[in-house]
Amino acid sequence: MPLPADRFFDPDPAQRQVARQLYQSVANLPLICPHGHIDPSMLADPDYSFGSPVDLFIIPDHYVFRMLYSQGIQLEQLGISPFSASPVLLPEEKEVRHRRAWQIFADLFHLFRGTPTGIWLTHELSEVFGVNDPLTSGSAMPIYDQISEKLASPEYRPRTLFKRFNIEVLCTTDAATDTLEQHAILRASGWRGRLRPTFRPDRVVNLDDPGWRENIALLSSLSRIDVHDFHSYIAAIENRRWFFKQMDAAATDHGVITPFTIELSSAEADAIFQRALKGKPRKGDAVRFTGHMLIEMARMSTEDGLVMQLHPGSFRNHNSWLYVTYGADKGADIPVATEYTRSLRPLLAKYGNDPRFTLIVFTLDETTYARELAPLAGHYPAVKLGPPWWFYDSLNGMRRYFDQVIETAGLYNTAGFNDDTRAFCSIPARHDLWRRAACNWLAGLVVRHILLEAEAFEMAADCATGLARRAYRL
Questions:
Q1: Where are the beta strands (DSSP E) in 187-288?
Q2: How far apart are CA 164 and CA 285, in angstroms?
Q3: What domains can be seen in the chain, in order of their start residue?
Q4: 3-class SS of residue 438
Q5: Mind giving me the DSSP string for 71-126?
Q6: How far lies 134's CA from each of 113, 123, 432, in Å?
Q7: 311 by DSSP, 3-state: which?
Q8: Strands 334-335 and 314-315, how do they pair?
Q9: In angstroms, rounded to a whole number, what is the distance separating the alpha carbons of residues 472 and 119?
Q10: What share of the chain is helix, strand, coil (3-state, %, to 5)?
Q11: Helix, strand or coil, per DSSP, at residue 287
Q12: How far apart are the C-alpha atoms of 473 and 357, rounded to whole Å?
């Protein structure tokens, strides 16, 4: 059965009516996707196939398999191989395994009730694949076959879906040492869709990354700069940023455990860098070095115009056994308490008032919304707040965001919405949820006579597209 037209709107008839009208005004606006983790090879290859329903819905989506894992389902049962296993399977063997994985997924689909993942999955099945029956143990195989048939057709190639989803621009997230080969192939192909890279330097900045020294060697090779001290290191990073800018990058992205910033002297920065190059860092070096580099990255943004995104507060790979066995991004990243007011002050003291600089800050600690982040964004010209992120990219997370942030920061000191997804077909579902949540919030302000209807319509359009376009200069 089709999804209810008024889903997620308030049960109060007056608010629901206004929310419906607001939503209808923005429902068909294009999707602006300034931050996400889609693999660019999907779009570089015009004949790219998503594979099986398991390849599409389960294997790349940590939101899905972390829930199943929490109930005792082993990742191998879901088609995810450990490092020690050979990933090469005969087609018939893969089909058998994937059907088994899909059956498990269907048997346990009730686990996603009331979760944002459940909302996204239901939207994808219904709106993208035309599945009108609930996914249950009994319907698992017919639905698997229905999706498989569609995935084999040209209408379900990524480029075709990109156009169908009405995506205006999609930004990927790419390591500083990425050659951006797939982006180059796409540009040379003449395809008219807009795919833009994002510069993410974490693996050449965070000294505690296991492959830091190897990545420094790669940075040196790609930039053609002999990275042997802090000065040459900065030059190499500036070189890579310039390359990304030439490839149409709009932003940088920085994943850190804490937003701590500190300005070091050139001598201290070089001393830390030299110790790390020799594999002999001291306790505290990594924290101080990353804190200093965040300020350096802000300085570079004032010069090259790249918008700076900051994503702190995730304890990565909390499940050590899972990380060693399967690798990163397996659903074991856990939020930690985060402090922004003191941590960001050194950076904002230098660049928070600079009109050339934009810093978009995200959080996994909702207690900071009203206490720290909204006041910071409501004061510093350079600071904007990113939308609810990761665990809070949900209907209730969005409600809390609007309630806690807007009264202090105002809507126009936020950066709109981004989907932040690895699951390509979830993009329209995530944007639809945001638009409905935003319109319902605005409708509540209208019926309480805080906003005029005309103001609410303007704000709805800005929530859908305008804020993100302006914040990321897209």
A1: 195-196, 198-200, 251-256
A2: 48
A3: 49-154 (1.10.2020.10), 158-472 (3.20.20.140)
A4: helix
A5: TT--GGGGTPPPTTS-----HHHHHHHHHHHHHHHHHTGGGGTTSHHHHHHHHIII
A6: 12, 11, 20
A7: strand
A8: antiparallel
A9: 27
A10: 55, 10, 40
A11: helix
A12: 12
| 263, 297 contact by CB (below 8 A) | no
Q: Report the C-alpha gap between 382 and 307 in whole angstroms.
A: 10
Q: Tens-of-pLDDT digits for all 474 residues of the chain? A: 689 999 999 999 999 999 999 999 999 999 999 999 999 999 999 999 999 999 999 999 999 999 999 999 999 999 998 977 766 778 889 999 999 999 999 999 999 999 999 999 999 999 999 999 999 999 999 999 999 999 999 999 999 999 999 999 999 999 999 999 999 999 999 999 999 999 999 999 999 999 999 999 999 999 999 999 999 999 999 999 999 999 999 999 999 999 999 999 999 999 999 999 999 999 999 999 999 999 999 999 999 999 999 999 999 999 999 999 999 889 999 999 999 999 999 999 999 999 999 999 999 999 999 999 999 999 999 999 999 999 999 999 999 999 999 999 999 999 999 999 999 999 999 999 999 999 999 999 999 999 999 999 999 999 999 999 999 999
Q: Residue for token digits 């195989």?
A: 141
Residue 113 has phi, psi (to 5 degrees) of -60, 135
Interatomic CA distance for residues 201 and 159, integer angstroms: 28
CA dihedral for 234, 240, 243, 247, sign (positive or negative): negative
Nearest partner of 359 among 289, 312, 426, judged by Cα: 312
Exposure string over 195-207, b if 16+ CB within 10 A, otherwise e: bbbbbbbbbbbbb
Collapse the DSSP code of 329 into the 3-class scheme (helix H, G, I; strand E, B; otherwise coil) and give the result: coil
